[in-house]
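User: Okay, second chain of the day. Same drill as before: sequence in, structure tokens out.
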Amino acid sequence: MTSVPHVPVVVVGGGQAGLSTSYWLKSRGIEHLVFERRTAAHVWETTRWDTFCLVTPNWQCRLPGHPYDGPDPDGFMKKDEIVAYVKGFVAKVAPPIREGVSVERAFRRGDGVFEVKTSEGDVTCDEIVVATGGYSDPIIPRMAERLPEMIVQMHSEQYRRPEALPEGAVLVVGSGQSGAQIAEDLHLAGRKVHLAVGPAPRCARFYRGRDVVTWLADMGYYEMTVDSHPLREGVRDNTNHYVTGRDGGRDIDLRRFAREGMELYGVLDDFRDGELRFRPNLAESLDFADRTYNGINAAIDKHIAQAGVEAPPPSVYEPVWRPDAERTALPLDGSGISAIVWCIGFTPNFRWLDAPVFNGAGRPAHRRGITECRGVSFIGLPWLNTWGSGRFGAVGDDAEHVVSTIAARLEGAAPAIQAAE
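Assistant: Same drill. Structure tokens below.
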């Protein structure tokens, strides 16, 4: 009988979360393996459009032992630069990674050891770190199956450039970060764009002389933990604010796009009787986004006043366009729409993990990545601990916390689950 190899720790996922975990495991001399079903930088290299760039300034990129050290800390890395940054981290960490290997099932045996079944054989371990993140499976609604075959459909992770789409108008569904930026990309290329707007917030790129991210950093927002946030764990359900770092950074104002010819609608609800059906909530969504925009700026105003900081005068955004009426139906024939880009997000994929770590909604129940099931930890999830937990900014801090807990357990101690620091 062939023996199954054993390692103390298995990390599932080789993106920045898994690589950060490997960094700290290596620093403590803990043997481990990282399984990545594709390649370490594949998300940035193969699932982003050509003009993609970060929406947070480069100075916030601080993977462990690998902070941004380029010439433009206040700029926004473009796709190729992000790929180079991640690959540079891979080279620095030199992780024991097995790329192209999928984890098919992981479960704890009766002897307390975890068995991990992969596409290249089995291993056992004492600890599993789930680093697959919260954006594994693209969401495409079932209504897509009923659309005419001649309509080209793709998810945001498949979109690359306007020229790759057939001639004609494009329907972009969703106005979070990806939807708003892809709609802008198409609009700037001169394409006719129809945008189904969702309840996503927005924020200013620059306000009172500085990047809004810099103001929020000064205000301590990025140190706020999920336990101290007014929404508590509910903040994990929030949609990210739409803004862009393109061309040095700017606001994304959907009202201005509408004034320039983009067609805006409410949330896309259905396709029926040859018509796209929308909710009558466009005005509500635009107003919500603007309230958030002005609310963030008002918080910055308060900080400036309290800190006595010299800055340009405050301002309040006033809508440059309002819908005359809510349009709830659009006949597909005659619309000129030849393609649809679905930008309605992703779902995590934890189906391979057989462990009692999920709540009633099917989400991991944890405190800063540490679950009540000894030996199972999570890393890289949105708001695992802070806003930056799923990003280059704080994933390394969370990985260090998870690894320190693992190290204590491997050494024989079993510390109680602690509140997020």
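The chain has two domains: 6-136+348-410, 139-342.

User: Thanks, on to the next one.
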